[in-house]
Amino acid sequence: MEQFTPTTSRRTVLRTLTAAPLVANTGQPWDEALAALHKHYDDDPVRLIRTKPGRELSKERYFRAEGFFPVFEGHAISDRDHFLYFAGITAQLALSSHLVDVGFPDRWCARYIGLRVAKSLAYANATGFDHDCQGMKRLAAVLTPYCKWNTPRLFGEPEPDDGGFDLAEVQSLLRALLDHVRDVTGHSRPGTRRSTAQRF
Fold first, then answer.
1. How wide is the angle at C-alpha 187 spanned by C-alphas 192 and 140, nearest 5°?
2. Which of 78, 129, 183, 190 gives 124 a disulfide partner, CB atoms 3.0 to 4.6 angstroms apart?
3. Which tens digits make up the pLDDT trace of 152-192?
4. In this structure, are residues 2 and 118 in contact, taking their beta carbons and an 8 Å threshold?
5. Is 167 strand, coil or helix?
6. Is the peptide bond before 145 cis (omega within 30 degrees of 0)?
7. Distance CA 89, CA 148 (A)
8. Cβ atoms within 10 Å of 55's Cβ, excluding its own
C-alpha cells in the first residue's frame, strides 16, 4: 500500500489545485490513490487545497529538514539511537514539505500521520512525489514512528530493529530524499542553515 503511481504529473495537477482550490480533490488524477490510502489506514478523507501560507510552510519544513540532517565525522558512533531519531525527524520534515505544498492541511497531517515516516512516504508518493526508492521505503519503516529511537527502554525491553542499516547508508538515503524534495518543490537549498546539522 506504500507505492502509488499517479497518472498525471505533479506539476499539471498543482496548476489545477492552484487555479480551482474550491473544487480541489474532486475528479483529480490523485483521487483514486488517496481514496485507497484513506481506506487502508481508516483516515478521514482530505481535500487538497494549495495556498500561499502552505507554500511558505513547505519551504520552512524543507529548511528545517536540512537543519536536522544527522552528521557524523567518520569516527565510531556511540549513540546510534540518537542518530536514527534525528534521521526520523529529517525524513518526516522533508516529506511534510511535499505534503503541505500539494495542499494537505497541516492539522490533518498532525492527526492522521503524526510521527509515521512510512505513512508520510505513502501519502507523498500517492500525490506525485514519485520517490521510488526501495532503500528509503525500508528506512521509513525502521524510522516509524521515529520517537521510538528517543524512548528509554526499561525492564529489559528489546531494542527497535534498525533494519541492518549502517549510518553512512542512512545519510545517503536521507540526502537523496532531501534532494528529491528540493527538485519536486522547487525550493532552493538553505545554504548557511546546513551548519545547524546534528553532529554525532
1. 90
2. 129
3. 888 878 889 999 999 999 999 999 999 999 999 999 987 64
4. yes
5. helix
6. yes
7. 12
8. 17
